[in-house]
Amino acid sequence: MGQLTQFAPFLLMFVVIYFFMIRPQQKRAKNEKEFENSLKVGDKIVTKSGFHGKIAELAETTVVIETMSGKLKLERSAISMEMSVALNAKKA
């Protein structure tokens, strides 16, 4: 019983770290992956670097976006989920 009370603070610390740091990060990564997979041609997006555009072509890991100055080829992971959702919510 004495050893259990000795390790209780460490167990409690691990549980707190899991629920406040690890779990939210995993949930966010899952949401971003679902967002990347749900992209389709014609969607208006904003990249993490601030480029605004419309999706012209999709590949497995890349996307071609149409901007006012031409077409750009980017990785899907370069698209910002938060800013794209906010942009589309503003338009609707």
UniProtKB/TrEMBL annotation:
Keyword Transmembrane: yes
TM stretches of this protein: 6-22
Membrane association type: Single-pass membrane protein
Classification via InterPro entries: Preprotein_translocase_YajC (IPR003849)
Transport in keyword set: yes
Compartment(s): Cell membrane
SMART domains from the UniProt entry: YajC (SM01323)
Main location: membrane
UniProt keyword annotations, A-Z: Cell membrane, Membrane, Protein transport, Translocation, Transmembrane, Transmembrane helix, Transport
Recorded family membership: Belongs to the YajC family.
Protein name: Sec translocon accessory complex subunit YajC
Organism: Flavobacterium limi
Organismal lineage: Bacteria, Pseudomonadati, Bacteroidota, Flavobacteriia, Flavobacteriales
Gene of this entry: yajC
